[in-house]
Amino acid sequence: MLKNYFNIAFRNLTKHSFYSVINILGLSVGLTCFLFIALFVKDELSYDTHFKDSEKIYRTDFTGMINGNEIVAALMCSPAAKSVKETFPNVEDAFRFRGTGNWFVKKADSQEVFKFEQTEVVYADDNFFTFWSKDLIYGNPETCLLNPKTLVLDKTTAKKIFGDINPVGETLILDNEQTYKVGGVYEDLPRNSHFHYNIMLTLKDHWEYDQPIWMSFNFNTYLKFREGADVQTFSTDLPKYMESKFGPDLQKFMGTTYEEFLEAGNSAEFRLIPLADIHLKSDKLGDIEPNGDIKYVYIFSAIGAFILLLACINFMNLATARSAGRAKEVGLRKAMGAVKSQLIGQFLSEAIIISFLSTIIAFFLAGVLLPYFETISGKSLADSDLLSSGFMFIMFGVALVSGLLAGSYPAFYLSAFKPVETLKGRLNLGLKSGGLRSALVVFQFVVSIAMIIGTAVVYDQLSFIQNKKLGFTKDQVIAVDDIWVLDKKKEAFMQEAMRSSQIASGSLTSFVPIGSVGNNSAYWPGETVNKENTYVFNHRSVDYDYVETLEMNVVEGRNFSRDFPTDTLAILVNEALVKAVGIDEPIGFKISTFADFGGSQEVVSYRIVGVLEDFHYESMKTEIDPVLFKLSPSGGGSALFRVTTNDLDGVVASLKSAWNSVAAGQPFEYYFLDQKFDNQYRSEQRIGQVFVVFAILAIFIACLGLFGLASFTAEQRIKEIGIRKVLGASVTQIVNMLSWNFMKLVGIAFIFAAPLAYFGMRSWLDDFAYRTDLKIWIFAVAGLVACVIAWLTMGFQSWRAARSNPANSLRNE
Question: How many Å from the N-terminal Cα to the C-terminal Cα in the chain?
Fold first, then answer.
């Protein structure tokens, strides 16, 4: 029986090759899209699950509200890890990372210097390998980070520095002065981890290692619970425990009790986030790396499902439209004794064959297009991900379901024909009787139009971000990194660099206002501690020329000046800070904080000398927060240069020459401020690219089905067309007649798509504190584009039919 099903199925596929090609092509494209999105979603959901006992590991985070200033951080205080482990029996182990800056590394017997970014080097507790259950290639996992001045390297870094030898016991020099011993080499951390450190330094070398302060949040802290531990109960007990630790520090540093702190409208909460949720559900201050977003997993999953559904709809539409051609076949088979279940099996087998052929083609297309998908998605995937047995099993399961879905309605529809009616040719078929087909066409264009609108809105928001006034000028600014390595030669470098006539101004700073956050500290108005009026502000150190170099606008007061020696205790603030504190006359107003003098905390007061126009120093997804600048003429790790020429290569060469004159042998790193600004919105740019690609494919699949339906409709109405031409109808009139019914469906689709796209994209835009408006013209253009594409698709087939010779269609009448 099955063999007969497949024989007839292949015979029908080859007999009606035009419609078979349309079905297979549409399903292939739909399955290819679904396959790529499945790869993307699978990768996003796999983050950190490779760690042993990953389901028992949680990160502790801090969320607080201090005088209206919300702090949401993926950080914890230094003593929390050890204290929690000792206090709660259900906590099996605890571990900490402490972030650090950029590092220059070289072998003790070599002059070759390797640079590592701040996301590549970290201070780590000595139990890293036991906590995370990671093996070492060389070294002892229990002792490799136990002693001061020891570090471990990943395999790639060890090979880059030492070659193929075992480097354990070898010496490295960090930042030209610190000597470290290599304690071990570990396998590179998997790509789907939320941290990818190449070098780990023992945390015992960091001055905060055993700091007892519970109000300083600088550590990424993880807890591993024992088997069967009640994490929910722990989460309930944790706030009260932390209150007992946090309260004394409040009293010590701010002169207030925990109860008074809460009564003033403040809060301090300590929360747990499961390890597997960090990548997709954490967007917090102190996150180790930029994370993904669960929202995009949902969006991509929906897009993949809808595009596959569009392809299935094509099959259903064409199969039911062609039902007249197979009506007599059904009638004859029923007259010969075939039962309904056999006919259903026949039609489903045809659909499954098309689906499996399409799946094989989809895997081939995916293999060819994988590099392009990696480019637009930002993922690094391998053919092994695509061809893994588990993934292929899942995809062929999807193919089976798709085949059953696509073939189900045609199978039940065709098998229900009455043999007497079909053999007498009394079936009422065609577009006007195809209510379901019309509904499916509408659905296809609802999805397509909504995706066109979504694409336009994404790019409109990106254009808004690019053109919005930032409060400073990002163009024509070059930043040179790692100025700190010059030490006392910073000024010499700046003087040498400023000799170039192509550089208008330069500044030494610790604050590059692109996706940057400052150091958080508690401040209060006045010169004495005010426990009822405390604020947490970002602060950074800049020099005299910072404001001029970035062309910031001083709206009140003045900039720092070398003519005022007292500016060492002066500050510049932004408008948001003035508003947050409620200062009526900011110039001369004093704001105080604690400062560390030889291990003792003392109050230091700063006087506001200038107010800066609010400027965007973080992503436009967030409101502009209060920030203040302190004066540090030679501080900071970056140098900014405003250039006056388009010969940027020449300026870079000049800066590199100046660098080499004072820091020969040290890596020279630079970037352009406007490019770094654009990089903040890399994920949104990728979303835009993904929307473009899938919107085009959705339209293509929908038009493919429309093309097939238009061809079939023209074929069914060929005699009507011939008669109309004989009676004097023009080609234009016939084209309009054949296209009008389809165009009505596209219009109906727009009526449904517009509100769906409006609410969907408004929700997406809500992620941005500063966003564009949803413009009516975007919706109008999207509808017009869909209509034009649909009309061209149908018009071509209609034009061919209208141009045919009526003698050929009427010769048998």
Answer: 41
Contact of 637 with 579, CB cutoff 8 Å = no
d(CA 46, CA 381): 13
Query: Is residue 426 classed exposed, middle or buried when 0-12, 13-18 and 19+ CB atoms within 10 A define those classes?
Result: exposed
**Rounded CA separation 131/651 (Å):** 49
The string of DSSP codes covering 164-194 is TS--TT-EEEETTTEEEEEEEEEPPPPTTSS
Q: In the structure encoding, which two tokens stand for residue 357, read together?
A: 């052929």
Q: From CA 72, how far away is CA 193, in angstroms rounded?
A: 22
* Single-letter residue type at 427: L
Query: Both tokens of residue 527?
Result: 């010169």
Cβ atoms within 10 Å of 777's Cβ, excluding its own: 10
In angstroms, the CA 122 to CA 554 distance is 38
State the pLDDT at residue 620: 84
Residue in 276, 396, 299, 317 with CA at minimum distance from that of residue 35? 396
β-bridge mates for residue 179, sequence order: 173
C-alpha span between 451 and 448 (Å, rounded): 5
Question: Can you say whether the dihedral through the CA atoms of 331, 336, 340, 342 is positive or negative?
Answer: negative
What CA–CA distance (Å, rounded) separates 491 from 494? 5
Distance CA 128, CA 97 (A): 9
| Half-sphere exposure for 554 (CA within 13 Å, toward CB) | 18
Residue given tokens 């997406």 in the structure block: 764
C-alpha R_g of the chain = 34
Residues 532-556, mean pLDDT to the nearest whole number: 88
Q: What is the DSSP letter of 74?
A: S
- Amino acid 358: pLDDT: 86
- Asked if residue 285 lies in contact with residue 73, where contact means CB atoms within 8 angstroms, the answer is yes
The pLDDT assigned to 662 comes to: 87
Structure tokens at 412: 């039940």
pLDDT at residue 431 greater than cutoff 50: no
Torsion angle, CA of 625/629/635/638, rounded to 10 degrees?
A: 40
Closest CA to 278 of 499, 99, 111, 51: 51
- Encoded tokens for 608: 């506001």
Q: Any residues with CB less than 8 A from the CB of 105 and at least 6 apart, and which?
A: 113, 114, 115, 116, 161, 172, 173, 174, 199
Over 80: is that where the pLDDT of 438 sits? no
Give how far the C-alpha of residue 45 lies from the chain's centroid of Cα atoms, to the nearest Å.
13
Percent of the chain as helix, strand, coil, to the nearest 5 = 50, 20, 30
Measured distance CA(87)–CA(272) in Å, rounded: 17
Taken in order 156, 160, 165, 168, the sign of the CA dihedral is negative
**d(Cα 585, Cα 627) in Å, to the nearest integer?**
17
Q: Are 445 and 791 in contact (CB under 8 A)?
A: no
Residue-level pLDDT at 430? 42
Residue with tokens 């020459």: 657
- 792 vs 420: which has the higher pLDDT: 792
Buried b / exposed e along 335-351 (16+ C-beta atoms within 10 A)? eeeeeeeebbbbbbbbb
Instruction: Give 640-678 as a DSSP string.
Output: EEEE--S-HHHHHHHHHHHHHHHHTTSPP-EEEHHHHHH
E-only strand ranges, 237-322: 267-274
- C-alpha 640/C-alpha 503 separation (Å) is 10
The per-residue DSSP string of 429-480 comes to: -SSTT-HHHHHHHHHHHHHHHHHHHHHHHHHHHHHHHHHS--SS--TTEEEE
- Kindly list the distances between the CA atom of residue 713 and the CA atoms of 49, 414, 529, 707, 788, in Å, as whole numbers in the listed order: 53, 18, 83, 10, 19
- Listed in sequence order, the residues at least 6 apart from 56 whose beta carbon sits closer than 8 Å to its beta carbon are 92, 224, 225, 226, 227, 229
Output the six-digit token pair for 96. 């900490």
